[in-house]
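note to self: dont lose this again. the chain is below, predicted strucutre after it. 570 aa total, dont forget to put it in the shared folder this time
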Amino acid sequence: MKRPRHLARLTPDWAKQYRRQDLGGDLTAALVATLLLVPQGLAYAVLAGLPPHVGLYASLLPLVAYAMFGSSRVLSVGPVAVLALMTATTLAPLATPGSPEYVAAAALLALLSGIMLFVFGLLRLGVLAQLLSHPVISGFISGAAVLIIIGQLRPLLGIDAQGDTAITLLLALLRRADDLLPLTALLGIAALILLLLSRLFLARLLVRLGLPVVRAALISRLAPMLVVLLSILLVHLQGWHNTVAVVGALPAGLPPLILPRGDWPLIQALLLPALIIGLIGFVESVSIGQAMAARYGHRLNPDAELRGLGAANIASAFNSGFPVTGSFARTVVNAEGGARTPVAGLFAAALMALVLLGFTGLFSALPLTVLAATIIVAAGGLIDLRTLRHAWRYDRTDAVALLGTFGGVVIFGVEAGISIGIGLSLATLIWRASRPHIAVVGRMPGTEHFRNVKRYETQTHQSVLFLRIDESLFFGNVRAVEDRVLAELDRQPEAQHLVLIMSSVSRVDSTALDMLHSLNSNLRQRDLQLHFAEVKGPVLDRLQRSSLLEQLTGKVFMSAFEAEVMLAGD
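---
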């Protein structure tokens, strides 16, 4: 019996092709991913300024929504450190952290972000993934990671210090070092050391003991749950409930489905942050999804990712959650755990529902200092020195953009850092375009090919100057192009013809057209002829709609070789 057509259209592609043999891998992956998701959900909710259980709420329906609309087979969606920090930064001026108003505003923030992303997906705006360069995104995430680490030193050490920026907070922590709570600091630092050792050495040790590499890596990534359980056991055995700050009682049961509400002033205040949070989450998630797709031979659809993440955030909002996106650590665990399809996410949601129904009491004695250690180690993995080293060797401009974004986030905060990053992305683009590569070229002997005279032994002519422009002509670079052309003509005073090879020019705007008119007039006064060669069809079509070609002192040639044949003997 065939399903109705409208149901078939709503069915995800993976559901149509699901195989029974995928079931075991998906179920195993869901189990191990949930073991990581529970402590991270609690920790990132605290980082966002929300009650810990909100992190579990945000780890439930978003998994289901993404499975229905997303395109990655292994991406694990839920709370992440960077979006948690951005949520806290956005909401702190609007409400008291942890208050009902704050929780409601977080859900509204997720709803607005989700609606924007879903609409972008319907409009097929997946190209937004290219809005910011990779170095700028790396600088932003690395800077946010440093902010997170410094911010978590307070609960880690039990020091009550305040600061508006990372630097002022760090100074406040140093000034109040004498207020450190010894037991809290000891427990937190011990957890931190255990987590660091497990991340650095546990997988290698397990491999030496005979475990397969994939299984060893999987076990090492589940160390946060083991440390959490050990700390809870220690609190119970030692009776530290009133000595060390703990999570406290978590509400049992599934969260109610509630439509987030807010007055118009609050919505206005959240619109821009919701857009920025959505785009940052989308870029980060697509980067993770593309890496996993390349590894496992799958295809990622950026437009479907917009819809999937949009639906996940809308679902989080109805679950009284906060903004979510794809998590690198959980995605890797999901993939290494055997996930074959998004059914693993559905199973993980079911397991999270079981945790909420019957096991929330287990985490009431979880020390906040251990949660802080978990966040610090996770944030440390976000600091991307590899991209900085690569950018510094390959393109210093990208490296400067990365460092500028990083410094902006650390010194001035998340919002200022994002603004600086976007500004540096645009400035880098304009700076490069405003300095186009222009080469004096000559013909390779015995061929019809023209190459840069600085790189090859070429044949040139004193009466003909060939210049190849390797950039589209627009208002930002016309002055540099004109100056370079005139400078080269001054270096070759015997020239009677100037041939601009435009094989790399894809566009000539109106400002550049005015520059070419001016150049043509200038050369006429100097008794020189201006010629074009290898002009692309779309560019030639636009030039023919102007008066430039009618007033041109020279000709338009199909190739540089044709120009040389016609002009070299003049």
